[in-house]
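The material for today's practical consists of a large collection of protein records. Read left to right, the backbone structure tokens trace the chain's path through space. An example says more than a description, so a record of this kind follows:
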Amino acid sequence: MSRTTVRARSVTAVALAACCAAVLGAGGPQGAVLPAAATVRPAQAPQQEQEQEQAGNDCDVYQSVPASSEDGPAVKAIKAKRSLVIGVDQNSFRWGSRNPNTGQIEGFDIDLARAIGTAVMGDPDKVTLKAVPTAERVKFVQEGRVDLIVRTMTITCDRLQQVAFSKPYFNTSQRVVVPKASPARTIDEAVDGKTVCAATSSSAEDELKARPKVGKIVSVENHLDCLVLMQLGKVDATMTDDGLAASQAAQDQTVRLVDGEVRPAVMGIAMLKNSPDLTARVNQVLADYHASGAWRAAYDRWLKPYMLSDAEHYWPMQR
């Protein structure tokens, strides 16, 4: 994957912390101390955990049910309750964040969520967007608190055991963000022996656990908390999805991306495993969304200024 670049926007640490507390709600940064949900732990995972992870890596993350526009029992049940609830992010600049002027959540994933909801329900007013923390995505689906998750969610073998996924809709990888004052130029230089932040239950956290030279891992509820902690000198670096890394650098001109990327992967839309007809409908909407040019239009509107490669570089080849 080509290197991600950004256009920086000036945001000071104090202003960012203040606006996040006011705009983003309970999941946002907590000022000059570790967020309430932050966990600090030694970086290396226990041997048993590493073996379990290796054992669960034999799967096809592109595999999903065939696309269909038919209404099955799951879709009919959702229509009967007259509301499709979609879990989204409200903390990720350009992907899913609140516009301070309008109070509305907006971004690349938000456009996609609304398109899916409108196509399934036939009425945008019957679509409800619900903010979901990174660490709670699987739990919200399993407990029925949302019908879908459209929230920069990487498809992994472990998650495929817990929820169903649509066909992939975005290529991604893990990148590292550091303060501009940091001398680090590569991922190894940025994380070896350092205190590194990542969202709980994220692919970035998994990658850091697999790196024995990392000093400490600080796990937070939402990746934006990492940006504030980095600004306040509480952590040395942040690892997150490349698109989210680009959004952090775009949000604050005092941080930058280091060279290199790891864990190439794909993002998908999560839902219950026992709702194959809903997965089929989502896959049909995704195919139509891309074919119509709407996916490209959303990319150009929200992400193009911050990503180096052309839009089609990020659309996964469908298998």
Notes: Residues 1-34, 43-56 have pLDDT under 50 and may be disordered. The chain has twelve helices and 14 strands. The longest helix spans residues 276-291.
